[in-house]
Amino acid sequence: xxxxxxxxxxxxxxxxxxxxxxxxxxxxxxxxxxxxxxxxxxxxxxxxxxxxxxxxxxxxxxxxxxxxxxxxxxxxxxxxxxxxxxxxxxxxxxxxxxxxxxxxxxxxxxxxxxxxxxxxxxxxxxxxxxxxxxxxxxxxxxxxxxxxxxxxxxxxxxxxxxxxxxxxxxxxxxxxxxxxxxxxxxxxxxxxxxxxxxxxxxxxxxxxxxxxxxxxxxxxxxxxxxxxxxxxxxxxxxxxxxxxxxxxxxxxxxxxxxxxxxxxxxxxxxxxxxxxxxxxxxxxxxxxxxxxxxxxxxxxxxxxxxxxxxxxxxxxxxxxxxxxxxxxxxxxxxxxxxxxxxxxxxxxxxxxxxxxxxxxxxxxxxxxxxxxxxxxxxxxxxxxxxxxxxxxxxxxxxxxxxxxxxxxxxxxxxxxxxxxxxxxxxxxxxxxxxxxxxxxxxxxxxxxxxxx
Amino acid sequence: xxxxxxxxxxxxxxxxxxxxxxxxxxxxxxxxxxxxxxxxxxxxxxxxxxxxxxxxxxxxxxxxxxxxxxxxxxxxxxxxxxxxxxxxxxxxxxxxxxxxxxxxxxxxxxxxxxxxxxxxxxxxxxxxxxxxxxxxxxxxxxxxxxxxxxxxxxxxxxxxxxxxxxxxxxxxxxxxxxxxxxxxxxxxxxxxxxxxxxxxxxxxxxxxxxxxxxxxxxxxxx
Lengths: 452, 222
Known about the structure:
heterodimer, A: alpha+beta, Beta-Lactamase, Helix Hairpins, Heat Shock Protein 90, 14 strands, 53% helix, 21% strand, B: Rossmann fold, 2 domains, four-stranded antiparallel β-sheet, 25% strand
């Protein structure tokens, strides 16, 4: 089923509906007032016309075998009392016009409206039987009046009614807007109370809500409970999966190292070395995939802890120093002694720093140096420069893409996720990763740029 | 070095014990926390290698208790769990370092040495041959009243010779112990490091001799 207004705001829908009702009511009010006013004016005119015709008819009397009319002044003056309209009359006795406008047609029925001399008139006929010379003679008195005054009255009533109607409409619409606003206030309060929550706050909502919203709140709370359960389940799952994979890999790798010592033939040794490399590749990929999944999850719900970037960098450097030492690589860090305050997720940032440094160690030759330094005035720029093979001519931006690696990686074990992880973390903190050629000509320089 | 390995996977433990024994280390193995505590009560170790998920408790609780007892024996945690979340808390709980499974034993040794160095290493780390003292922790040589500092690979190479003076080690054996498995190096790369060691041993009464077709050995200079 198509619902044309499913997307539009409830407030707008409420306001539109309320003002539509107000418009219909205003229009009905206007039409009714106009009709009633018109009818009342017509009735009044009819009564006066009838009274006038009756008084003329009363003034007819028989004399010398004929019918005589002595037109009473009041009969016409009373018509002037309601308006300045022109008045026509005609007295017909026994089929002959006795006096008045001979072409004034008799109304059918006795009260009628028709055009006379180019103008609409309201006419009334009063009949009376007069006995004249022993004979009953029928006399008809017709009185007609133009309707200009009446139209003026009814148009003035109509315009007043229209003004009142418009006023009512505007007032009702304003009230409708206020009503819509106040009806939606609890919804906004609920939205605010959910929005204000921290990223890891999955407690049920306890905001006071009207009874109509209770099902929504109940559904929301139910959903959050399920989310919470599913999150902790997936964290457990990741941990368990890692454990399950890593333990047998460790056994294989260790046994392979033991076997390697005992083997004599170069071919056998070569095979075992290849095996160890495969294990390393596997565990490295597993680790980085886990890192990547964790980063994706945590960047959605970014923690905002206060931390010191200098301390964090130095921790990462010192943890990787023994790893670098195996290849006689010296990590030279020139870190500021003053605090470098930053707000962010320490675990994510550490992961980014470690991945960058780990990459640098991996691609550096033995007996080389990696320098880690702090710079930048408007933003923190943590630079990792190595004397390795660089990234070749690979496009810097493509290196940050998932599973993409430099074009000259050769034989080095890697998954291509390291810089992707670092980039995701930097972006989540409003920063970025910049890749440059080392200033000294050889090697690469990776910068982690974070806003100050 | 004397290690205590606390790890519940028997196959893994056996492999690790075998592997460390190859480098001349002595390893006791405890499959749970209670056994580990019993070992610690009667023996002194240079280092404890601790797994986190154990049948009778969490390795982290062990760490807390261990630090509570004012025991200074360094602990390196062998973690197999999710990469990021745990590591930070491990160091906060008093672990000296951690290494993620599966690990390179050269790296484990490097970390052990780094931890022990930080603790201000013991005197029994000095091996002496032909009047040349080799400090396997600090990575330095002492002879004729002078001290020569070794780089990491020189240090590890010399450690092999000093552990078994007079024994011949083939190039491929030395290569296995010196280079990581991700590096593709030829056996000749060993010659570079042998050359460097010879330079550092100049004037000493010990020297590294080439045994044609077989390898190298540490001998007394004539």
